[in-house]
Amino acid sequence: MRVLFDTNIFLDVLMDRVPFSDPAAELFSKVEDGTIAGYVCSTSITTIFYLASKIIGAARAQVEVKKLLNLFEVAPVNRAVLEFALTAGFADFEDAVIYAAACQVDVEAIVTRNQKDSKKSKISVYSSAEMVNIML
């Protein structure tokens, strides 16, 4: 299954945000073992690095981003993705970009804690816990 993970899911794992970190980490294990083809939006990488460096320091943030890049495929953001995001009908532009990038790489699902802002998605949107249950 091809799944794009939203920024908040990576931060849940990296920052061990309980109770969200456990199901997110379980999904990352499924990416690691090949059960899930995991994707991260390219714009998420910079956000993750920025926020992580504020909390765990730039050196550790760099190590964690390298791990992320080794494990996940990157869904690129280019002009076409941004233009599509502008017309996707989402209230939040960042969520629209995540959705447009997900469309570009043809994923089957998006995992996020921000499901309410993805109502316009034509791709199935799940929380980490919901996706874990689907993968059982």
General description of the model:
The structure is a single chain. This protein is of the alpha/beta class and 136 residues long. It has a single domain (2-135), classed as Rossmann fold, CATH 3.40.50. It is built from 7 helices and 5 strands. Strands 3-2-1-4-5 form a 5-stranded parallel β-sheet, with helices on both faces. Helix 1 (7-14) crosses helix 2, helix 1 runs parallel beside helix 3 (42-56) and helix 2 packs across helix 7 (128-135). The longest helix has 15 residues, at 42-56.
Q: Quick one: overall form?
A: globular
Number of helices: 7
Supply the CATH class.
Alpha Beta
CATH architecture designation: 3-Layer(aba) Sandwich
Q: State the order of secondary-structure elements, H for helix, E for strand.
A: EHHEHHEHHEEH
Can you say what the CATH homologous superfamily is? Answer: 5'-nuclease
Q: In what order do the strands lie side by side in the largest sheet?
A: 3-2-1-4-5
Biggest sheet character: 5 strands, parallel
Which class best fits the helix and strand makeup?
A: alpha/beta
Mean of residue pLDDT values: 95
Please give the number of β-strands. 5
Poorly predicted regions: none
Q: How helical, in percent, are the residues? A: 55-70%
